[in-house]
Amino acid sequence: MAAISLENLSFRYPGASEDTLSNLQLEIADGEAHALLGASGAGKTTLLNILSGLLFPSAGSLRFNGNDVSRQSGRERRVAQVFQFPVLYESLSVAENLAFPLKTRKSDAGLIAERIAYICDELEICDLRELKPAALSLFQKQLVAVGKALVSPDVAMVLLDEPLTAVEPRTKWRLRQTLRRIQEDLKVTMIYVTHDQTEALTFADRVSVLSAGGLLQTDTPERLYAAPAHEFVGHFVGSPGMNFLPGQALGLGDVERVGFRPEWGTLSRGDADSPANTDKPAAQGSIGAEVLRTRLQGAQGGEAFGLITLSTAHGEVTVRGPMAGNSLQPGDGLQLQLSRCVCFENQTLVREIDFL
Ligand SMILES: Nc1ncnc2c1ncn2[C@@H]1O[C@H](COP(=O)(O)OP(=O)(O)OP(=O)(O)O)[C@@H](O)[C@H]1O
């Protein structure tokens, strides 16, 4: 397995006037489960193609275990890839499909048999060995494709390109869990490329958020959530994303903007001294608000629970929490108390504040 490092890596498509990827700096540890997360057009496919050796960087370098592999083919780098749609030979059995990468490298029969047994055991697909792909579910086919990627004993890294795309919806979570288990068991360096934050945050040890060809943050899922380095990350990660208000709204006039997650707010009935929709800065961490609308999501501990959109003097915000027996009505005056917020200058994180 390999540690991967990108050093000031940039890429520009021939004829383009701007770089599609600019100055990427990234260190991925040997055996790490890493996710590249970004919206459509962020540059994920371009970076994936650079990692797999289909494209070469225009500037900077890509290193595997310290060796510059920027100009090597995927085969030389020993990169294996799992695509959105399982790539299997329909005329070959599962065992023969698994053997294929080793046969093309002229591995000896003993090693091939040993590796197929090992992979089938690890992926729990021993009962599928003699079946042809046509007899398999999409879930099973993708599992075999993962097996093909892992079968070579000297694979340096496995790239997973939106691997759940083609799998039946009800088995997506199972494949994601299986991938995670395999990664942990085999300690393979895996890079999972996706636009889906749930997939990225539940699969990876660390996630890199890519936007407009730049890396905004590389961090653990917990830190991405609690301390987004950039406002875009706060907005993009989480469902719904982070709320933003001017610093002055919370009496934090020394910072430009504050962000808080819907989960970081609790609501209480407003009092006469804290009317909603006034410009008066509130005590730090507390602000007057008025209910705009509510959206029931379910119940927790027998109490209605959902999203409450509030109007404040400084803009709308959304809070997740109990809906007081669903008795909240549009127009109700409330007090919003935050447990935590993060502060931004020029869209960049400058301070984290825990109020409680
Ligand atoms: N062959 C190409 N020539 C010129 N520009 C390209 C080419 N391929 C992609 N691009 C541009 O590079 C940028 C990044 O595209 P890329 O496909 O890497 O993004 P992505 O994050 O994978 O998006 P998606 O999830 O939609 O595939 C886009 O602006 C795209 O238009």
TrEMBL record:
Gene Ontology CC: ATP-binding cassette (ABC) transporter complex, substrate-binding subunit-containing
Signal peptide: none
Domain ABC transporter: 4-237
This protein's UniProt keywords: ATP-binding, Nucleotide-binding
GO MF annotation list: ATP binding; ATP hydrolysis activity
Annotated region (Disordered), positions in chain: 266-286
Domain of life of the organism encoding this protein: Bacteria
PANTHER family, per database record: ABC TRANSPORTER ATP-BINDING PROTEIN (PTHR43875:SF14), MALTODEXTRIN IMPORT ATP-BINDING PROTEIN MSMX (PTHR43875)
Protein name: Carbohydrate ABC transporter ATP-binding protein, CUT1 family
Annotated organism of origin: Congregibacter litoralis KT71
